[in-house]
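Progress note, sequence design subtask.
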């Protein structure tokens, strides 16, 4: 009886630890997705700025000639 109770407690502990690890991984996945989205937004902003710089450089080159 005693060993069955210990075995069940061990199983419960293992299951609890697995659930905690899964939860932590899910939270990290969410955080990573949020960071990916933020980086994508910054990439878009940088691309827009690069395009604006190229347009201004073209205007400047046209004015110099």
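Output:
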């Amino acid at each position: 009886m005693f060993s069955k109770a210990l075995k069940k407690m061990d199983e419960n502990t293992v299951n609890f630890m697995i659930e905690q690890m899964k939860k932590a991984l899910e939270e990290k996945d969410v955080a990573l997705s949020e960071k990916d989205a933020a980086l994508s937004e910054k990439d878009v902003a940088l691309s827009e700025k690069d395009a604006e710089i190229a347009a201004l450089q073209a205007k400047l080159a046209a004015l110099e000639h």
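The chain has a mean pLDDT of 95. Work on this subtask will continue into the next period as scheduled.
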